[in-house]
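call fold(seq) -> tokens
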Amino acid sequence: MTDLSVVIISYNTKDLLFDCLKSIYRAQQPSKGLEVIVIDNNSQDNSVEMVKKDFPKVNLIANKDNKGFAAANNQGVQIATGKYLLFLNSDTKISSQALVKPLKYLQKNPQVGGITVKLLLPSGELDPDNHRGFLTPWTALTKFSGLYKLFPKYKLFNNYYQSYKNFNKTHPIDVTAGSYLMMPKKVFDKLGGWDESYFFYGEDIDLSYRINQAGYRIVYYPKVTTLHYKGASSGLRKESKRIARPPKETRIKVARSSTEAMKIFYQKFYQDKYPFYVREPVLFAIKTMGWFRILKHKLL
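ret:
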């Protein structure tokens, strides 16, 4: 059994995937070895051919259709032999210590069910998406109304990104992102893996919620960094629009999936937690936001 299995989902990000894989093999390796698993979701940009040619050591699964993020990750775990798993986006480049230091932290802290690192955007700015609170109705309101921007250091108004915490110190968080999530395989197996009800977006919030429910902690570990181009596969993020622009039909599908994910999560965990006069406005708001997101990409 190797120390670590790195699981990467690929979808039309050939050049970014090349850089990602290169950074993994250049990084310091775990003492008992490392395996890299790439699951390609039917890319049309020769990603599969590139991996076969340039990275023959990679365990490659080439799907004939796009199975989505959660289902493809579960495919990868099925063949993983590592004691620990690292779910890593194809639009990332890790630093030299980004494999070994978080791994050592997990090995020394068995109560930790997941760990993430400091993500940086190409501009050098912090990417806060892997440092979040649970998306309660109030947290969602402060996020989508923009209140979190007005009061970034106040817990009441910015529990979404939790920017009142010190991003330079190791500390527990509620929610991390699937862009970089390392966890013990035994915890992943105990939770039953990623929920395949989600196609794209939301599955990381779901998994984070279940990690906490099972009595484990998620830790933000800023002692190492990872570069994140952000949104290269989806085409919904302004940070990566210059380097990746998926076709309109892909962007519309992802936009629809992103709001459907909110509905799935809310109905799964919050349906019976809040009364109808909270539940119905929340579901209506999700539906309305989804309509606007889809319309935006239909018009672009």
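The two ends are 48 Å apart (CA to CA).
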